[in-house]
Design a protein that fits this description.
About 80% of the residues lie in helices and about 0% in strands. With about 425 residues, the chain is an all-alpha fold. It is globular.
Length: about 425
């Protein structure tokens, strides 16, 4: 009987993520916030109804892969190319500032542990763009200028994080040297570019020639998504979600991309995304959190938010983005998500991270994951309010121009009538 317990777990996750999603939507917040809260409430942190299992973890991983693949298909390639240089600057500053801020905070609590404290800073450099992608999709802002900058910066952030992780582990004698890692990363993107160009042409030909049974397109697309995610992670050491995103970008220029988007959105919405968001909340457990670590967790959360907003925001501003766009980009890079947890677990396994810091890191991951959609909602709503005021001001100006034109027309008519009367008098 216990072998079928996963059915109950999935049923609870699907029901409560949607129920709380509807509740949060009533309060003008993205529904993803409700899904995250559902996992937190059902997990060990509150009611303890659900716990992590291998099945839930596997479905959660599949969920974030499909989510990033869908984001890749929605990407505006032309805008992504234009924001390439800016994305690198945003990502670089957005890595350096959190790295330094995290190091100094850890050194304040545990002075003298250079590599351990530096590793905590490395945890703060991570960016989990999956939450941001879901929120931007819900807001309809994924293909905007700021949305593409966030996606590009997050990809580069992932690469910079891998390089920094390799450098720190190499310095401790726990990992591989930096040179081979850089070569593998460079090889991955070069191969992806060449393969993407060829694959895009091949899919265009295939989609146009065999258009009767569209279901086969979905199967092939999902197969490629999973295969590319596996190759990226297993052969090149790049995150599987990066591989899935690039696979989605390859399909972005195909003639049946709209149909694929619709099908994958259904797959993600019905099962995979709710499990992924709920699984984040299931990781929280407050049992080992004492007073000192709670204070540390609060300070770490403040540092985690400010370092990304300021770092990425300044980078965006230096690259010519407006103040409003820079704030949006900074907010979009706040979420740490599963990426930070993976880095933290690797640090504990290699002895490079103090195990006492794990509980604060988990709290920061949960808090930033919940706060990021709220920040984005406020950032974009502020922009919309400004836009509405600007449109209202333009409308008032147009009304005033019409009034002035009406007055001018009346004057012209009066002058014309006076000239006509004068002409009639002279004629008589």
């Amino acid at each position: 009987m216990n072998s079928y317990h996963y059915l109950l777990e999935l049923a609870l996750i699907l029901f409560f993520t949607k129920a709380l999603g509807i509740v949060t939507k009533k309060f003008a917040m993205p529904q993803v916030v409700g899904a995250l809260l559902a996992g937190l409430l059902m997990g060990p942190a509150v009611f303890g109804v659900l716990h992590e299992t291998e099945l839930l973890n596997a479905l959660a991983e599949l969920g974030v892969i499909v989510l990033m693949f869908h984001a890749g298909m929605e990407t505006d390639l032309d805008e992504l190319k234009r924001s390439g240089k800016a994305a690198f600057v945003i990502a670089l500053i957005g890595v350096l500032i959190p790295l330094a801020a995290g190091f100094f905070l850890a050194d304040w609590f545990a002075p003298g542990r250079l590599l351990e404290n530096l590793f905590l800073g490395l945890v703060l450099t991570a960016t989990s763009v999956s939450i941001t992608v879901e929120t931007l999709q819900e807001l309809g802002k994924l293909s905007t200028r700021s949305g593409n900058a966030i996606l590009g910066a997050a990809l580069i952030d992932d690469v910079l994080g891998i390089v920094a992780l390799t450098m720190i582990t190499s310095a401790s004698g726990q990992g591989a040297s930096v040179g081979p890692v850089l070569l593998k990363i460079a090889a991955f993107f070069v191969i992806s570019f060449l393969f993407g160009a060829l694959a895009c042409r091949g899919f265009n030909w295939w989609f146009s020639r065999y258009d009767r049974d569209k279901k086969r397109f979905v199967i092939v697309a999902l197969s490629m998504c999973l295969l590319y995610a596996y190759i990226a992670e297993d052969f090149f050491g790049v995150a599987d979600i990066t591989g899935a995103y690039i696979a989605g970008v390859i399909f972005a220029k195909t003639p049946r991309v709209a149909y694929l988007q619709y099908r994958f959105e259904t797959l993600s919405y019905m099962l995979l995304s709710p499990v992924f968001f709920a699984s984040i909340g299931l990781k929280v457990d407050f049992q080992n959190l004492n007073g000192t670590m709670l204070i540390f967790a609060i300070l770490l959360l403040v540092v985690a938010i400010l370092s990304k907003v300021v770092g990425c925001g300044v980078g965006a501003k230096l690259c010519g983005y407006s103040t409003q766009e820079s704030i949006r980009i900074g907010c979009g890079m706040v979420s740490r998500g599963e990426v930070a947890l993976i880095v933290a677990n690797k640090g504990i396994a290699s002895g490079l991270m103090n195990p006492d810091f794990l509980a604060p890191v988990v709290l920061v991951v949960i808090a930033t994951t919940i706060l990021t959609p709220i920040f984005l909602k406020l950032a974009y709503r502020g922009g919309e309010a400004h836009k509405e005021k600007l449109e209202e001001s333009r409308l008032l100006d147009r009304i005033e121009d019409v009034k002035q034109l009406d007055i001018y027309s009346q004057n012209v008519l009066e002058l014309h009538e006076k000239l006509r009367k004068d002409t009639d008098k002279e004629t008589k």
